[in-house]
Please model this.
Amino acid sequence: MGSGSSSYRPKAIYLDIDGRIQKVVFSKYCNSSDIMDLFCIATGLPRNTTISLLTADDAMVSIDPTMPANSERRCAKNTFDGISQGNCLLSSSTPYKVRPVAVKQLSEKEELIQSVLTQVAEQFSRAFKINELKAEVANHLAVLEKRVELEGLKVVEIEKCKSDIKKMREELVARSSRTSCPCKYSFVDNSKKLTPRRDVPTYPKYLLSPETIEALRKPTFDVWLWEPNEMLSCLEHMYHDLGLVRDFSINPITLRRWLEKFSQMDILILMTAAICHDLDHPGYNNTYQINARTELAVRYNDISPLENHHCAVAFQILAQPECNIFANMQLDEFKQIRQGMITLILATDMARHAEIMDSFKETMENFDYSNEEHMTLLKMILIKCCDISNEVRPMEVAEPWVDCLLEEYFMQSDREKSEGLPVAPFMDRDKVTKATAQIGFIKFVLIPMFETVTKLFPVVEEIMLQPLWESRDHYEELKQMDDALREKTESLTSGHTDPQREGSRDVRKSEDNAILN
Model:
């Protein structure tokens, strides 16, 4: 048999802490101070607290390795079994109640240790927050990087402005001995054929004469007499003349730089319509885009592919800091301008012509300038008028554009034929003539639209409707001449009928409907 010490087991003491039973286990090698600390920790008291342990009958129990063990539960009061009673007495029966007596004053050494332990705990707490600190530092760095980027853009803009100012000063010095440039031609006598002058300074230093400014406000303005750089000066003046530079705090130098980003025709149409409605036009209409399943049609789900593309290109250019004429506007103002531009650009899709016209006509009986919906429809109609108003201009100005447009139509129809795609009759070079194309468009699109606008603005009848009526009459006369010449030619061929010419007669019936699509 071995000695008793070889079968030693740690002692377990049960404490009653406000009705909660806590078990504390210690070995016989612990001294009274160690056991006292264990009891303090178990009860949630400071380690330097002096406590007393009490039995069920409030007898104090000595706290030392030899203290009597107890049980987790009370012995039943009705137990009279001698053995059971003996066991209850040996184990002191019930858990000991804990009573704090006093808090011991720590010695200087103990206080120092306690302080060190507290600091170590704080350091560990900070170490666990390292990820939060990293995130905070990253956010600060992002803010600083954004600020540096903005400051860098400002520096670039300032340098560009300095360069432009220097060039302007040099031009002013060079022009000191030069007289002001008069208007290139007079609009009083349209019968005179004048040759445009080309000795004007290059954009953006050209100062417009009063005659030119007055000419810009008339529909008879002839763009063919101006070079692209001169047109840019005219367009810049329009922004100033309409008060846009003043009201929206547009940087004049940025405005000049922005205007230079567009081609001559695109800028002309843009400023006439006050929007970027035809930017980066590929020369093939929406019908071709959709039938040919082009990248634009796929991107915009066959919904006004070209107009959506014009919008995107316009705002891509405006997004460049050196071209952003809206840089000084508030966010709400920019959102309003962007939404308005998108609405108007999409309105130029001729597939929506009937829809927009019907909606606008419904407002005519009770048009309200304070009604936002009415005003939006009016702006949509006005931009459509600007978009297709070529025939409002004098014949010598408008007809070259008609030739360009027909050539564009013919190029599309040729490509559609080569690719096996449907061909619109009014675009087919083998069926349509200039006269038949113009008569249908003027009679069924232009005149009805401008007549509707005349109800709101009676002045339109004299300056715009009258030229349209004259243009219609001109092309009807041209068509009569074409018909007479064709009949004469056919009579000379003595019965040899050309099927293509027969087809050109049928196109008159179909093109009136097809032209709106």
Observations:
- The mean pLDDT is 75.
